[in-house]
Amino acid sequence: MYERIVIRRHYALDLDTPARDGARLRSTARERTVYLVEVEDERELAGWLARHYAKVFAYTCILTDLLRRSSAKNLSSEGGNGLRKERSASMGTDRVDVSVDDLFGTLYWPPMPAMLVSSRDPDGSPHVAPFSLVYFASYTNVESVAPTDKIIILGIGGYATPETRKSKRTYRNIADSGEFVINVPPTHIVRQANRTGFWEEDKFAASGLTPIASAKVKTPSVAECMASFECEVIKVDHLESQADLFWGKVVAVRVDRELYEAPADQKIAMMKPLYHYGYSHDNGTWFSLGEKLLEEVESEAPKSSPGPRS
C-alpha cells in the first residue's frame, strides 16, 4: 500500500486518502496520491501520520530509511516536481559473480519479442512455431546503398546437439525451401501462440490459427497476426554453439490496413506484441508491452553532440 522512499530527509508516501494541512501532493500513473512530507526523522513522520492518518498508520505503516546517504547528484529525477529516488543505498556494491560455464543467459535477459515463424513441409503442408531468437539486422536504407536489403536473422537452436536442432521441423522446412515468414502475434492470441510450441502434426489446426497465402513466397502467413515479413534465405551461419542463424532477405511485408494507416508512434501499441521470458530449458513466461516511459525527441539532443548517436 505504501511506497517508502527517503529523499534528502524527506519521506514520500503513497497514500489513498486526501491531502490535508498543506501537504504537497502529486498524481501517480496509477491515479493514486503521493504526499511529500518534510520531516527530520522517523518519529516526526510517525507523529504526522498519527495525527492525520491514524487508521492507515496503525494498519500497515512500516518506515524504512532507504536513501539517507544519497546525494542530489546520484539521484534520478522523476517528473517535474523534484521527486527523486534510487533503487538501493547499496546499489552496485553487493553483486554476485555468476558462472559463465553454467550460465542460462536469458534468466538475466529481458523478455524478447516472440514471433510466430511459419514454414512449409516438402508436401506443401503449412507449419508454424514460436521463436524469440529473431533480430532485424538491417531494417532501413543507408545513404551509401539505397535501397538497402532488409535482413532478418532467425536463430534456431536446441539444448542437445547440432543434429538435434537440424532435425527440427521448422529447421528442415526452411533449409529445404529456402524461405520463411516472420509473423508478429498480438496479446489476444497468446494461448494459441503458446500451443504452437508443443508437438502437433498440424499446429495450425491444433492452435486454432489460420494459414493464408503470402504475397511472394510459397510459405503461408498467419492471418491472426497484424504484420508478416516474408523472407528468402541468403545464408546460414552454422554455429558450434546453441543456434544456427538463418539470414533472411525480406522480399515482402504485409500488415493490416488499420495498422498501416495508424500514426508511426501508435503502431506498436496497436500491434500489442508478445514477449517471452525464458527462465529455464522448459519453462517461460509470456508478457505484453509495458508502459511508455519516455518519448525520444531529436530536438532534445545536447547541442554539443559531435556526430551520430552511439
Could you please describe the fold and organization of this structure?
The protein has helices at 42-52, 54-60, 162-166, 169-177, 190-195, 203-207, 257-261, 267-271; strands spanning 5-7, 10-15, 24-27, 33-38, 76-77, 84-85, 112-113, 115-120, 126-131, 134-138, 151-157, 179-184, 211-212, 221-222, 227-237, 243-255, 274-278, 284-288. With 310 residues, the protein is α+β, with helices and mostly antiparallel strands. The strands form five sheets. Strands 9-8-12-15-16-11-10 form a seven-stranded antiparallel sheet. It is globular, with a radius of gyration of 26 Å.
List the keywords:
disordered N terminus; alpha+beta; Pnp Oxidase, Chain A; single chain; 8 helices; 2 domains; four-stranded antiparallel sheet; 18 strands; 310 residues; globular
Topology:
Blueprint lengths: L4 E3 L2 E6 L8 E4 L5 E6 L3 H11 L1 H7 L15 E2 L6 E2 L26 E2 L1 E6 L5 E6 L2 E5 L12 E7 L4 H5 L2 H9 L1 E6 L5 H6 L7 H5 L3 E2 L8 E2 L4 E11 L5 E13 L1 H5 L5 H5 L2 E5 L5 E5 L22
Antiparallel strand pairs: 1-2, 2-4, 3-4, 5-6, 7-17, 8-9, 8-12, 10-11, 11-16, 12-15, 13-14, 15-16, 17-18
Low confidence ranges: 1-37, 53-85
Q: Give the name of the CATH superfamily of the largest domain.
A: Electron Transport, Fmn-binding Protein, Chain A
Number of helices: 8
Please bin the fraction of helical residues: 10-25%
Provide the residue-averaged pLDDT.
Answer: 77
Shape: globular
CATH class of the largest domain: Mainly Beta
Please state the CA-atom Rg, rounded to the nearest Å.
26 Å
Element order: H for helix, E for strand = EEEEHHEEEEEEEHHEHHEEEEHHEE
Structural domain count: 2
**Strands across the major sheet, in which order?**
9-8-12-15-16-11-10
**Strand fraction band?**
25-35%
- Can you name the CATH architecture of the largest domain? Roll
Structural class: alpha+beta
Q: How widely separated are the two ends?
A: 40 Å
Largest sheet: 7 strands, antiparallel
**How many extended strands?**
18
Give the CATH topology of the largest domain. Pnp Oxidase, Chain A
What's the oligomerization state?
single chain
